[in-house]
Known about the structure:
Layout: E1 20-22, E2 57-62, H1 68-85, E3 91-96, H2 101-113, E4 118-121, H3 129-138, E5 143-146, E6 156-160, H4 162-177, E7 185-189, H5 196-209, E8 214-219, H6 226-240, E9 245-250, H7 253-265, H8 281-289, E10 295-298, H9 300-316, H10 319-325, E11 328-330, E12 338-343, E13 345-348, H11 354-358, H12 365-368, H13 374-379
Helix pairs in contact: 1-9, 2-3, 4-5, 6-7, 9-10
Amino acid sequence: MLPHRKAPPVKARTTRRPAVRHLSIALAVTVSALSLTACGGGGSDDSAGVKKGNDITVGLLLPDRDTARFEKFDYPLIKEEVASLTDDQGKVKYANAEASVSRQSEQFQQMIDDKVDVILVDALNSKTIASDVKKAKAAGIPVIAYDRLAEGPIDAYVSHDNELVGQVQGRAIVGELGDKAEKSKVVMMNGDPADPNTARFKTGALSELQGAVDIVQQYDTKEWKPSIAKANMKKAIQTVGLNNIAAVYSANDGMAGAVIEALEEAGASRIPPVTGQDANLDAVQRIVSGEQYMTVYKSFLLEATNAAKIAVAKVQGRSIEFAALTRETVDSPTAKDIPAMLVPVVALTKDNIKETVITDGVYTVKDICTAKYKADCAAIGLD
């Protein structure tokens, strides 16, 4: 089990967005402030239906296997937390859509047919999932949107402040470019337009990049596929010129790796700053070696364990605790004032690897500093 530790600190955001309302806590929160022992106001009345004990089944639907965190962290953490909260009586029924929207819909229906008590879903497509959410609600099964904000009558949302993710990425680029930023040509490699988080990442990034750099090319990346990102990066190199690209905004680590491959194959003698997200192991290693500039570390521990807490509390009808776990609200295109927990994020660079993923037990020095990266690790004091 990963140890319960404080989340890395983040800078408080400087603007207020109408889609997210902060009710009572600052952005930089700790695990203890989010625990079930916290006090809070009354929860929503819709949690007062049939209440169950510890013998519950949580349905978990995750979107793909390409994003390393889902299989390695999210599923095991949620499974472990559900067991811990229910004296080992609760269980998790898990399915992975493997990047197929139709498969996720089939898996969702199977969860309904199996009469799970609550469904946690990380939707591949936020719009098409709405019909499945409605079916679950008709069957009396609460649905919690996990990591991505699904449409339809969902009961709660657990994720990160996704505009802040983009802001952190954009800020990193501008900061690294320094005085040369305004004249620097930047390529943007955005995520899947069907993913509701993509627009939020992009909005956050543009709030930092627009007017500060010269954005010369932008691409959307269907299903977040690295192969598509690589093909688009090759186009950007041909259009802009290899030596004219000063930085690349990549929305996640999988695409960052593909972008770097395209640059290296094109003969880049120096890789410009490339951003990422998710703190994948290979991305952390690329940061150690200097190939990737940064990634956004989002505490898997906080997101996953608190999603499990909300799911269990929802099924057991503990409305006061449920409200205490969701101190913010968000709006989707189909629902307003959805109870939400937004977990803080931090920019991970070679300067704070120890204080983030190693301190939190995500990776060990041995995991990161394999033979290939041993010298690079030693150079930054990671040994």
